[in-house]
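To close the chapter, one final illustration. This time we ask the reader to focus less on the individual chains and more on the assembly as a whole: which components sit near each other, and how the overall shape emerges from the parts.
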Amino acid sequence: MIRVGIIGYGYWGPGIARNFHGLPGCELSMICDKSPESLRRAKQAHPAVTVTCDANEVLTSPNIDAVAVITPVWTHFELAKTALQNGKHVLVEKPFTSTVAQAEELIELAAQKHLMIMVDHTFLFTGAVKKIRQLIEADALGKLYYYDSTRVNLGLFQHDVNVLWDLAPHDLSIMDHLISAKPDVVIATGQSHLNCHEDVAYLTIYFGNSVIAHINVNWLSPVKVRTTLLGGEKKMLVWNDLEADEKVKVYDKGVDIKGGENVYDLLVSYRSGDMWAPKIEQAEALRVEARYFIDCIEKQETPFNDGAAGLRVVKLLEAAERSLKERGKAISV
Amino acid sequence: MIRVGIIGYGYWGPGIARNFHGLPGCELSMICDKSPESLRRAKQAHPAVTVTCDANEVLTSPNIDAVAVITPVWTHFELAKTALQNGKHVLVEKPFTSTVAQAEELIELAAQKHLMIMVDHTFLFTGAVKKIRQLIEADALGKLYYYDSTRVNLGLFQHDVNVLWDLAPHDLSIMDHLISAKPDVVIATGQSHLNCHEDVAYLTIYFGNSVIAHINVNWLSPVKVRTTLLGGEKKMLVWNDLEADEKVKVYDKGVDIKGGENVYDLLVSYRSGDMWAPKIEQAEALRVEARYFIDCIEKQETPFNDGAAGLRVVKLLEAAERSLKERGKAISV
Amino acid sequence: MIRVGIIGYGYWGPGIARNFHGLPGCELSMICDKSPESLRRAKQAHPAVTVTCDANEVLTSPNIDAVAVITPVWTHFELAKTALQNGKHVLVEKPFTSTVAQAEELIELAAQKHLMIMVDHTFLFTGAVKKIRQLIEADALGKLYYYDSTRVNLGLFQHDVNVLWDLAPHDLSIMDHLISAKPDVVIATGQSHLNCHEDVAYLTIYFGNSVIAHINVNWLSPVKVRTTLLGGEKKMLVWNDLEADEKVKVYDKGVDIKGGENVYDLLVSYRSGDMWAPKIEQAEALRVEARYFIDCIEKQETPFNDGAAGLRVVKLLEAAERSLKERGKAISV
Amino acid sequence: MIRVGIIGYGYWGPGIARNFHGLPGCELSMICDKSPESLRRAKQAHPAVTVTCDANEVLTSPNIDAVAVITPVWTHFELAKTALQNGKHVLVEKPFTSTVAQAEELIELAAQKHLMIMVDHTFLFTGAVKKIRQLIEADALGKLYYYDSTRVNLGLFQHDVNVLWDLAPHDLSIMDHLISAKPDVVIATGQSHLNCHEDVAYLTIYFGNSVIAHINVNWLSPVKVRTTLLGGEKKMLVWNDLEADEKVKVYDKGVDIKGGENVYDLLVSYRSGDMWAPKIEQAEALRVEARYFIDCIEKQETPFNDGAAGLRVVKLLEAAERSLKERGKAISV
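The assembled structure is written out below.
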């Protein structure tokens, strides 16, 4: 029985709590939040769980084996570090940390203590991403050409981070999960309109082998868009996460090109065939992830969304942030 | 009666010919193309019009007042220059020229000769763009925040240019028409996958007053997208050119922000109200533009899509091309 | 403080319980279901509420003021009758009863006992239906021409009723709420394919003043559709309940007709103007209805969705059922 | 060389003319229309073709082998009859004739004269219908459950017929082409709002083997809908003719039902699998049909869309019209 404590019961915490609650092999033991109103909601939803406004109660309790850190990003490092120092496994909300240095320190600490770090890259547990990864692993798309994601909506404005740190971690963690090539250079542009934090941002990531990724994040869009295009040599794919039923569509479309002696002899032919929307697993991603967290602890296995995965995302965010501040300067990673 | 000759009867030329044909005050006199097959099609569609494979026949004919240059971009300069030297007004397919220097030389030549240059920025004559411009001029959107366009589809690959020069002129000319601020810096990223020409490209354009524009062009997308988001302080707008009926949607959505003493006191409130899709004029854009071309010649007026407008677009393209070749280096314009 | 007991904790009961729970002025006192598994779920969600498998405990408890009957339709009459006889107000799941005679008996009994009947026509409490009713009351649509609803999806098959009794009550109650004219004749067609219950059905309802309503319900559709068209003399409206944001669209479209001396002189002109999607209230319909139920009891007011409203729907269902069994025979109502 | 004359150059005639023009083995010889304006348009589009306002010129010309009758339905019989009497094959615009008796007389006359009748059921030549028919012939859908079509838009109002005769022939001819079972009973409801012609109508057609068809046609809809659902035991299909690329979607969805001893033991399980959008042939339907018309004449073959097919549609229209006038009375066919 893994006893779990949760620190942070704001926007995302209740979902975490609901999914750990009643999970076989797991006991939701304690919930912590600084806000009395949040604690009241926690108590109402989970009458049997101890609530507290003092994070140290969770971090030092001998009755807790693992701590979920579901707080603003600038607090992740201190909370996760203390949890690890007190011998607790940690699940950390994305993005893992504010800096690469912090992430590296936590990874090292966990290694020393033989503890597990999992970073909450929830999207990796959705049926859509799992299906796309299967398709890529089965080489259904062929050599990958590009990854292009648009993630825009109105709000949610964060006080402590810009739109890059708020929305791009989703895309970066998915990209990291799907693309085996290594990122090479990051270029980010964007603008702030309402305060000092950028509310629109555009990222390009060059990879070593002519794969290119592009991410468009925006807090000021009147319409919500969650669409990712993946182009490959054999097939192309559109993932629209707002579709109820057909989230992933695989197109038997592409280009065949036959070079002649010079560029003007190019013979380009378009291929346009069937479209296919595979059935997507419907299970709640957060429930699957909670199950995986408990299982990895019990079996002493390293999760694929471990600290190293979190670090790779933070590296890209840090590079993107630097690029953004210098109006698109190319930053190597 | 303005007598018009057309050079180039490939993909776009037939539309030009059809729209000049039968236009009151205009006579479609000659069509030129190097390809016998294209000339055969021209003859079938316009039995009464002289066809020729020799551009000089059009350029030097005493019976022609204006020449439409509807050929690959690398030929625009020579053809337009000769036409102007022979005293003919010119309508030049977008993009105007291959270089800024060429555009400037043509503009100067036309001024000396008291001839008119019009650049075929067809989208400026669509009901959608006209309506958006009206809304901006009436300050319906308020202070502009961003312009974000996605223009992707499968093909059409060009032998002589990359996706930037093929698709982005549409967005750049529309942006130039709608945004009164001046572009400041251009950053372009992209990648080629099939030959030496980039088939995906992403542009960011910084303007002086915190307006930011972003353009996503892609020849390798399995789905066709033609969507532009415009965010403003008062209202936000989505233009989906693929919608049959409701191309432009205006959202009474936005953010109100009240700053406190420090950044953590920010009070952000979202505004979410009605959506409104104004009726869009249905007339064929190319017909409206053809009419405007003839009228401007007759009235000796300078069109808004004149050589200077064409030059502004070429300047941005040239800067974007430089940026693209240097992996996103910021280029001032 | 109104003390509420719920009978039936299957598909719809949990939503009812959740919305009465914690409602000011209301106490959720007891939940009854015959299934031990349902009671286990009830207990988990509402630890403080008494659960029982014996409906009579709820129906006769002196500590209960109102009973929500959320059971299969063939049980409504007996349960509601006993509740009323025991002096309790009732909220009855739609459709109200299996027969017109039952509905009339319950209405009379409630009148004698000075008790309230509310029928759970939940859709009447949605933002969309409220907005449409406002538009009609403000005469925004003009004289109504037709009401045409499509409500199709895969499943949910019911053992005890056909698709007509399962899905059409939604449309009939909405239609009853929106259209002031009285229904005149009902014609229903349909077919069963898997067992004796019809799984597709089509209803036409003629009204006195040339309004016509049509309802298409289907349990065997691969795609889910929830779309209602309302045509009026001035404006037309589309309500797509599956749209996240723009559920109701009002079109300034229509037909102007000028009659000449004979039918061949008709001068028809189409009007096509702006489209407008008014902001729709987002509150959960069931919560609003629960609030209204408690308020009506406290203020001793008659709800608009009272037994008489439930009876009108059952009359139409009974007529439609007769018509369906006789392959579309016109049945007067 | 088959020499074709066209009578009627209004809405549909120009498309017919354009597709016969230049078709190998065919010569477009004459175009007739009563309207001088229509003849002017015909002359402009086809300078080499003789135009006339006198139908008899076409009907009696020794230089014409086949006549396309593209006129209002009430004129079809007389024109087609005269054409046949003069030894000419006929292509008749849908619906074939105004009455069953007329259709039967024309069929008999053609048989006597060894001439061909083709009825212009254009949709049967679209890539979408051809693909659906292939799927049905390959038993991909399994036993057919229902056919449900919605064909609504604003206008086009006809002076001489109601919405049933205007729009339903499309669906009836497609249904006739796809469903091998024989129609049994027709029930039609509807209403007129602007003049004496019904502008909305709803048809149900019962077939012998529990297949049911339903057709919703409406001239007063603010939105255009062209959607047909086909439900089968194995698979279900949605044909949305307004989709640019994925017109036909095949769903691996359905219901498996296992009956127990009584109805309450029914075990219903839903099947929900992949969706698949087969590539649809893009050729213009009217061009394919024109080709087929010429080929059938040359090879002396009977087309599948012959007079008998036209008659089957007229029989259903006549029955539906009778049913409509008697408010949904069931009419056997």
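DSSP finds nine helices and 15 strands in chain A. The mean pLDDT of chain A is 94. With these observations in hand, you are ready for the problems at the end of the chapter.
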